[in-house]
Design a protein that fits this description.
With about 160 residues, the chain is of the alpha+beta class. It has two helices and eight strands; from the N terminus they run αββββαββββ.
Amino acid sequence: MKKKLTVLLLSAALSLCAAVPASANPYNQDFEPSNNNYITAPPITNVHNSTYGYTYIGNLSVSDTIDMFQFATNGSGGQTVLFTPPDSKPYLLSVYKLSNLKQGIMTPEATKLYQRSEEQAFKFTPSNDPGSPIAMYVLSITFLGDTNPLQQYSFDLFQS
């Protein structure tokens, strides 16, 4: 009798686990789309001639160590990214010209390494392609640490 009861309880538990999908877990939420390469990088909007742009929030982990975002510039004036790391672990911000990435040129236009958990400005001057009033860029945020970051970070993008 005891053996039959154990088998019955075990099968009930396994059936319940199979019936509840992983997506029903409210703590397993993805806060952003898959954006770990320039092709899937979502476009973001910067606010021209503004003190601060919009605030964007992203998530990183040891298994997903890079986030990318596309944005456009009009080539007049510099661009500023205010990045707020979630912790004191190392993060690398890089800006790539989208047209270069599409041609296989992986050299960034500008980079900045963050190792403190305080907001810092990252400024760069975009260069448009000849004959084009607008240039597309990709902002890459890479976690360089070897242990899990606190995951959620934020940044602002605006024309300076």
